[in-house]
Amino acid sequence: MKFLHKIALVLVISILLISSVYMVFFTETKQTDNNTNDNNNNNQNNSNDNTDNNDDNNQDFTHIVLVEEATATWCSNCPIVADVLHKKFNISGETDFYYVSMVEDKNTKAHNRLYNDYNILGFPTVFIDGGYRVIMGSSDFEKTFNAKLKEAKNRQTPKILLSLKAKWDESRKEVTVTATIENKESTTYKGHVRVYVTEINSQWSDWDGKPYHLAFIDYAIDDDIEIQSDKNQTITKIWDADQNIYPENLWILATVFNQKSTKAYSDPPENEKQFNSYYADATTATRVVEGSLPPVIGISSPRKWELYILGKEIGKTLKGRTLIIGKTTIKTNYQAEAGVEKVEFIIKGGFRQIKETITKEPYELKWSTFAFGRYTIEVKLYDKEGKTATDSIDVVAFIL
């Protein structure tokens, strides 16, 4: 019987290697089918101290840059860009830029923003100040980003002051968001205010099984504005949170985009994918509620669309499936400010269900029991405050 098992395993491996595997060496592209708390932002873009509305010299019009990161869970190069942005960004102090992770395959509005507004070609792509500068791909990203960020920070912008408040209502599970825009130009200012609701530690994980940071969930405000000289406009909206949202994990980012458009391209240096760029003239952000962040967990192995033989990652599959041949180890990436209580591993399939609870590092599970067909691997982390985080992946497994 063992001899027959070995023959079967060799045949399965041979068929899959011939028909399903290829290696990807190029930039990835994808065209898809269709306690109440009141946090006043102390790091307002362009204005930290507006003591004299009639004297522009007393006001700080320093430009803080908006960075929109186009990413996707299937993108193997995207974590390189995400790591650079996360390392350079200071969420608790002074910063040259604010960024938001637009995860196109997890959020419809993020997808629409990238394809409809930016005419995106490939992932990863970074749009700076609404398309003033665009970086496509991950090659030498940090050096390129530093240069483009400096250009955007030093560009001349209209004298627009933007402030932001966010107030959490625990009983209603909602955030009241208030954006105030002040026009210090000598002429009427026309533009668009977009307020992004993001999660500091996202419930979604990237290609490497790491949690996204500042991942876009929804727009709290998405309105046109027209403000006369030396006047201001205040917009207040209520954003409803769902049951999976932790208020201390919410980060609200507001940007004022100019009404005037400029021709730009999402595929430099080829410059074939044109879009209308509306420059970001003012950006600011605030945390909603202080407190410990919820835990996060992601499956780092196996990864999406990969072939694994006896636990080794071989390459990508043609049909976008994750294939496992032979015993393997399910590995995780995780974070928990309050500490990890336990991690549950659940493997569901047509033949069986496996459930194991791990209470010690490393939080991983060896899968060696018989399996044949489609399975869902799910991991669930419990921290010591009772908060949870989950991740899952669908696989096809042949384990004899």
Question: What can you tell me about this protein's structure?
Answer:
The protein is built from 4 helices and 27 strands. The strands form 7 sheets. The protein has an 8-stranded mixed β-sheet. The chain has a 4-stranded antiparallel β-sheet with strand order 3-9-10-13, with no helix packed on it. It has helices at 2-20, 78-88, 108-117, 141-153, and strands spanning 21-22, 28-29, 37-40, 65-71, 97-103, 122-123, 125-128, 133-136, 160-169, 174-183, 189-205, 211-227, 232-240, 250-258, 262-265, 274-277, 280-287, 296-301, 306-309, 312-317, 323-325, 328-335, 340-349, 353-358, 365-367, 371-383, 388-399. It is 13% helix and 48% strand. Strand 23 (340-349) and strand 24 form a beta hairpin. By secondary structure, the protein is mainly beta.
